Structures are given as C-alpha cells and as structure tokens.
Automatic annotation (TrEMBL):
One of its GO terms (biological process) is positive regulation of cell migration. Residues 149-292 form the Palmitoyltransferase DHHC domain. It holds the Pfam family DHHC. The DHHC domain is required for palmitoyltransferase activity. It comes from the Eukaryota. GO terms for cellular component: endoplasmic reticulum membrane; Golgi membrane; plasma membrane. The keyword Lipoprotein applies. It comes from Vulpes vulpes. Its main location: membrane. Its EC number is 2.3.1.225. It is found in: Cell membrane; Endoplasmic reticulum membrane; Golgi apparatus membrane. This is Palmitoyltransferase.
C-alpha cells in the first residue's frame, strides 16, 4: 500500500508541475492541453468540488502563497530520502565511488541556496524612487514597449521591458514571468538565481537517475540474470529479455523503480524547460517578450503605412547584442543608460 501511495503522490506532483509549466509559459498548445484535461476531470469530479475549484486555482496561481514552496521542499525531501535509504546503501555495498554517490547531495546544497535567493530576492521592483533610472536602461522599440506609457495600477511610467505582475501587484523591471514554485516574480535582478536554481535542480534529478540506472544495470550484470532462462505461460523455455528484466526489477525493487521513473520524467521536463530558458537568455528575450512578441509585431504591421523592410524584420529584437553579451546581461543586469551603450 505504501508503494501505491508513493506512486500516486509522485504522479500528482508531476501533473502539478506540467500544469504549472503550462500556466507559466502560456503557449496556445499547452493551454489547449490544460483545457482538455479540465474537461476530462469535470466528468469525474462532483459538482460541489467543481464550484470550489476556481477559488482554489485562483488562490494557488493568482495570489502569493507558500503552497508550492512547501510542496517543493516535501518533494525534494521524499526523493532524497528514497535515494539515501535505497540507492546509497546498496551502491556502497557494490563499492561505488563515494564522490559519485555524494554528487546529488552537493547539487542539493547549491540548489537550495539559489532556490532561497530566487524566493527572497527583489526581481527589480519599480518604484517612484527608481522610476527615472529604469526608464534609461533599455531603449523603447515602439512596438511592444511604447514611450510615455503609464501603469494603470501603479500609476508609474513603464520602462521598456517592464510589466505589471497582477499576482505580486507591482511593476517589475525586465519582467520574465511569475513563478509559483518560488512565490516570486522573475525579473532582471533575480533571473541569474532562477537560472542557476533550474540548472542545479535539473542536474540533481539527472544525476540521481543516472546513479539509479547504473546500480540496476550493475546488479543485473553481477547476478548474470540476463543469461538466465524462464518458463513462459505455455511451458516453453525463453531467454530473458529486457521486458522480463524490467518486470523482475520492478517486483524486487519497487521503490527504486518508482523513484527512477519519477526522476527520469522530471529530468526531461526540467531539461526541456531549461533549454527554453537558455534560448531566451542567448537571444536576450524574456518569457513575456517571447509570448507577446509576434502578436505585437502583427498588430504593428497592420497600422504602419508602408511594409517593413527585410532588415527591420530580421533585427526587430533591438536588445540582443550577441551571445556572450546576452548571457552576461543575465548575470550582470544592464544598468547603464542605452544612450551610453550606443556611444
């Protein structure tokens, strides 16, 4: 029974992670998947719970709360507990390198540091005191970011690349997105912490998946299980194949197989999202700009008197200054006025 509970808990967390990525990235495809899942769930969940769901979803995703931070820590604690009690002990008996086995713990420490920094650091909140300074950092492209625009909520002039976060109720400099897992906006001043947090989280999941896989493979090799035969349901002798090995390992080490499946799925999900974040950093875009960019340019094209030249269409991202400069801007946010950059 505890195996079933553990599996269901992992499954729910994976589903929550997928839904969170969908909500954060806001792509049409992913939103379609979420809507389809909601329709399926609506056939199963009672009406009384369906009425309560909007309030719950609004609390979870549209207000600042610590639910996902607690969930994150519980998830990490459970995975590392399984790794410590199951994998670590068996691997020590098989004389695995201690440095190899301690690598996930080293990554955990670094990950928790950047996780904390992502949670508590200021993303670049725009106030009356620093409004004029932020107005000089980036050039207005007059397409997505227009001069002399005011935030209707904060009553502040909107610097280029800024956005008002409805969850945090503040305008954020170089706004990327609001992340429920860290209960904070990701902006110019904490984007580097979020990137390193995501990188170490992906690396720790991938490392545990690799260690678990190597342990199971070595176990099969040392026991010569792959050379054995078994009797099928017809009474015939059959050579052991990969499906039999997986079934045997699942029945012998169910907790390890559950954990391995979870961290492998997590590695692919986090790895895909990490590649997306690295792409944005390499091209000096934010998630907000990537999502709204094409829409803003299509709207702009409909209102211009003449067609845009080929050079304008190609170089429409005026904030990109080359690969290394773009990555450098993530770790050392731009502070100098854009007029100086031109000179």
């Amino acid at each position: 029974m505890d195996f079933l509970v553990l599996f269901l808990f992992y499954l729910v967390l994976v589903l929550i992670g997928v839904v969170t990525v969908c909500i954060c990235s806001k792509t049409h495809y992913l939103k379609g998947v979420v809507r389809g899942g909601a329709q399926i769930i609506s056939c199963i969940i009672p009406k009384c719970l369906q009425r309560a769901m909007p309030k719950l979803l609004h609390y979870l995703f549209r207000t600042r709360n610590h639910t996902f931070i607690i969930l994150h820590l519980i998830l990490q604690g459970m995975v590392y507990s399984e790794y410590t009690w199951e994998i670590f002990g068996y691997c020590r008996e098989l004389e695995f390198s201690l440095c190899y086995l301690l690598l996930p713990y080293f990554l955990l420490i670094i990950n928790l540091v950047f996780f904390t920094l992502s949670c508590v650091s200021d993303p670049g909140t725009i106030t009356k005191a620093n409004e004029l300074l932020f107005l000089q950092v980036y050039e207005f492209d007059e397409v997505m970011f227009l001069k002399n625009m005011k935030c209707s909520t904060c009553n502040l002039r909107k610097p280029a690349r800024s956005k008002h976060c409805s969850v945090c109720n503040r305008c954020v400099h170089r706004f990327d997105h609001h992340c429920v897992w860290v209960n904070n906006c990701i902006g110019a001043w904490n984007a580097r912490y979020f990137l390193l947090y995501l990188l170490t989280l992906t690396a720790s999941a991938a490392t545990m998946a690799i260690v678990s896989t190597v342990f199971l493979v070595q176990l099969v090799v040392l026991s010569d299980l792959y050379l054995e035969t078994y009797i099928d349901h017809l009474g015939h002798f059959q050579a052991v194949d990969i499906f039999f090995l997986i079934q045997y390992l699942f029945l012998t080490f169910p907790r390890i197989i559950f954990m391995l499946g979870f961290v492998m799925m997590l590695s692919f999900l986090l790895g895909g999202y990490l590649c997306f974040i690295l792409y944005l950093a390499a091209t000096n875009q934010t998630t907000n700009e990537w999502h709204n960019g094409d829409r803003a340019w299509c709207h702009h094209c409909r209102h211009v008197a003449r067609p845009l030249s080929a050079d304008t269409q190609v170089n429409r991202n005026i904030h990109s200054h080359g690969l290394w400069s773009n990555f450098g801007e993530v770790f050392l946010p731009a502070t100098a006025p854009y007029e100086r950059k031109k000179n």
